[in-house]
Amino acid sequence: MTPQELEAARDRLVPDVVAGGLRVLFCGINPGLMTAATGHHFARPGNRFWPVLHASGFTPRLLHPSEQEELLGYGLGITNVVARATAKADELSAEEFREGGRLLREKVARLRPRWLAVAGVTAYRTAFGDKRAAIGPQERTIGDTRIWALPNPSGLNAHWTLATMAEEFGRLRAAAEAD
């Protein structure tokens, strides 16, 4: 994909992969330009979402971003805190995160997944106004939906390795299976 094609995807919206009553609704920060250009969530080659999803046991095989609709068959879905595509999440304002959090709460109330898994604790803190939130299950719920803050799977998040990220996603999977 050329830099011009990526730039042309700026501000594009990417449809959610959702259905009512999901086991886990994964929530990214916002679509990157590669995601917006392809229409496939977590599409940037360095993003570890798909490998971590498989390594943690959520999917029986490694899915390609173009196979994202298969997630619905596993009771999984994908949305974002902020719908607008940008090159970097730091291009989003705190107000966009807060408004995204409000819209996300409405979406979750409507779809009623068992778990909302926000991939990025900083995005969770801003969107939900919870400055002390840490990785893991949160006390807050949205109706009956429980919330889990996950590490951001971006390749830029060097604090988490594929293995440690898969371990944390695996904790969520075990909790979701126990429900």
Task: Describe the model.
The chain is an alpha/beta fold. Helix content is 35%, strand content 16%. It is built from six helices and five strands; from the N terminus they run αβααβαβαββα. A five-stranded mixed β-sheet has the order 2-1-3-5-4, with helices on both faces. A hairpin with a 2-residue loop joins strand 4 and strand 5. Helix 3 crosses helix 6 (162-178). The longest helix has 18 residues, at 94-111. The protein is globular, with a radius of gyration of 15 Å. The mean pLDDT is 94.
Characteristics of this structure?
35% helix; Uracil-DNA Glycosylase, subunit E; 5 strands; globular; 179 residues; 6 helices; alpha/beta
The CATH topology is given as Uracil-DNA Glycosylase, subunit E
Low-confidence stretches: none
CATH class, please? Alpha Beta
Arithmetic mean pLDDT: 94
Please report the distance between the alpha carbons of the first and last residues. Answer: 42 Å
Rounded radius of gyration (Å): 15 Å
The secondary-structure class comes to alpha/beta
String of helices and strands: HEHHEHEHEEH
Count of DSSP strands: 5
Q: State the domain count.
A: 1
Strand content: 15-25%
> Helix amount, in percent?
25-40%
Biggest sheet architecture: 5 strands, mixed
Name of the CATH homologous superfamily:
Uracil-DNA glycosylase-like domain
- The order of strands across the largest sheet is 2-1-3-5-4
Continuous helix count: 6
Quaternary organisation? single chain
Shape: globular
CATH architecture: 3-Layer(aba) Sandwich
